[in-house]
Amino acid sequence: MREFFLNSGIYFEENVPLKKLTTFGTGGPARYVVQPKDEREISAVLTYLKQNDVPYFCLGGGSNVLASDDGFSGVVIVVGRFMSQIFFENGLLVAQAGAKACQVAHFACINGLSGAEFLAGIPACMGGAAYMNAGCFDREMSDVVAGVKAADENGEKEFGHARCGFAYRKSVFQSNGMIVTRVLLALKPEKPEKIRAAMKEILEKKKLTQPLEYPSAGSIFRAEGGAPAGLLIDRAGLKGLRAGGAEISLKHANFIVNKGGATAKDILELMDAAGSAVKRKFGVVLRPEIKYLGDTDDIGRLSYSFTL
User: Looking at the whole model, is its pTM more than 0.90?
Assistant: First the structure.
């Protein structure tokens, strides 16, 4: 595999600690981390990996992911700094998958375009935001996405809004095996000062309600039936529960934070405790929103029953 990366000229590193690549700050070493420069390199990497039956995981900004303490024996494809341009094309704002959501929000603001203000509060890259249909404060990606470009071993394809399969924290890219390369946004003209004020309000609300002072992966669960998962965990009396260096946040119970030296095992223990307690006390199932990066699906083996 090393020879393939060397011969293809694709940037790669070996034995990279996953805790450096994820917002949770956990994870052992990934055997290989590659950073493609464009969709052609993504296609080349996917062709090689699939032909040789090599496991892989696509990563952007590293939010919404829990990485295994044992690391990952496959290849982590990081769509990041080499694919992070933001520009205009055919009347749409186009963000490459590695562009940070907050950077897109500021770019839109500077250019007097409204609709992307909520992106200022999302700690993700645009590829991951589209993949998860990320959102906050009653806004989500599906509200502004006009289309998405994504690549697989057969090249790049464009998906119009209707073909993206958006639902709550869902998109077609979670099941079709393609990696998002560009996100096309349809925004509306507005005065920059009004946009700036809206962004400031979002960030202030986020600071008041979420534990931004500690590493986390964002919201951990969604509850069946639409009840707020954080409220249920709070009512179960689990705010402040600790396991090693991890804690169910005192500020927002649907956040697990790394207060120093937390391991994936610590975080899984708290997820199990929260899911089990809420199911026992309220009969409501908490479904994990975060993805697991490792050789085994340890989230899928939590002790209480749920379907992802």
Answer: yes
